[in-house]
Amino acid sequence: MRILITGICGFVGSSIATHISENYPGVDIFGIDSFIRSGSEQNRSRLNRLGIRVIHGDLRVPGDVHRLPDAELVIDAAANASVLAGTNGDDARDLFDTNLIGTLNVLEYCRKSSAGLVLLSTSRVYSQLALENIPLIETASRFAIDPAKALPNGVTRFGISEEFSTAAPVSLYGASKLASEAIAFEYGCAFDFPVWVNRCGVLAGSGQFGVASQGIFAYWINRYLHRLPLRYTGFDGRGFQVRDILHPVDLAELIMKQVAQPKTAGCIYNVGGGEPNAMSLFELSQWCKERFGEHKIQSDSGSRPYDVPWVVIDGRIVQKTYDWAPRLGATCILDEIAKHAVANENWLEISAA
Ligand SMILES: NC(=O)c1ccc[n+]([C@@H]2O[C@H](COP(=O)([O-])OP(=O)(O)OC[C@H]3O[C@@H](n4cnc5c(N)ncnc54)[C@H](O)[C@@H]3O)[C@@H](O)[C@H]2O)c1
After folding, report:
1. How far is the CA of 115 from the centre of ligand 1 (A)?
2. CATH code at 298?
3. Rg (CA), the chain
4. CB-ligand 1 contact for 5 (6 Å cutoff)
5. Closest atom of ligand 1 relative to the 15 alpha carbon
6. Which of 135, 164, 225, 315 could be a cystine partner for 146, CB 3.0 to 4.6 Å?
7. pTM of this prediction exceeds 0.70
8. Does residue 12's CB lie within 6 angstroms of at least one atom of ligand 1?
9. pLDDT digits 0-9 by tens, 148-164
């Protein structure tokens, strides 16, 4: 099988490309990247050494996509993936050019090549207000679902399922992905190619570019290691906000199971580490303290736009459908990021260059 990975030099694209190339003989991988993400250029020579061809091109430009060699499958891992994109003084149109028009050009490519598409969407498509209104209690170190209250549709103790509301606001980033999902399914139906939409929660692992608005686990661990200022922002400034994490290698394994079963296309799947791999920022700091020693975290009771107190992905449908489960747990992922941080002293500068 021949696979095109867009955004192949990004964190997720390069991790998936490496894993498939090393573990699935007979799969030929190539990819496209514009290198707009700081640090992405770093992955180019590493992928080349594995025999993976990287083409410099911009998905926003139809000709760049049209000229790509044919493939049987596209894994779309190119995006501006920051939840603050378009709201931080940068141009919102740029966000939609990349995330929506870029996807449209990829869909035209799929139509021309009769290639299937795996779209990496996000849990950010879920309603901000509905997420804010999930009833929570506090434990000693994190927010947790309040078992005494009625929960909104799509929330259980396992997390947020595919049934959760996608009503606006979801952030401009979330809207660009929600629209991409809809267009991808329409193209798949109209032109008869399979489309899988994976709504991913937080993905984390070594080599993730760490800035405050994207790659929070890599950002936090790298800054903690170097004793750089860190702040718990919002929610009373105690770092009780919770996320689950998934390693992209596990995502790669899932994708290979999905594409082996074309009949399962046409569905939306929530994909994440789930409740066993969830932790709060405070708990992350405790883990860092055990690993690296003391570092004082400051408290900031102000708020960050689009931040929410509790997002845990309920991935039971995808797990059952594909007999798949994450193999790399949270501790293993944190350990991997920490080792990478120690070995790459200037990682934060590379990520933010
Ligand atoms: N990292 C996460 O926690 C997470 C969570 C949910 C969903 N996702 C999705 O996974 C995908 C990959 O995310 P990531 O964390 O690897 O992001 P990333 O920023 O590390 O990688 C994105 C890559 O896409 C490239 N790119 C951006 N615009 C491009 C364009 N116009 N043409 C060609 N290449 C372009 C960038 O240069 C970069 O190499 C995205 O679609 C993102 O929305 C990521």
Report:
1. 20
2. 3.40.50.720
3. 19
4. no
5. 16
6. 135
7. yes
8. yes
9. 999 999 999 999 999 99
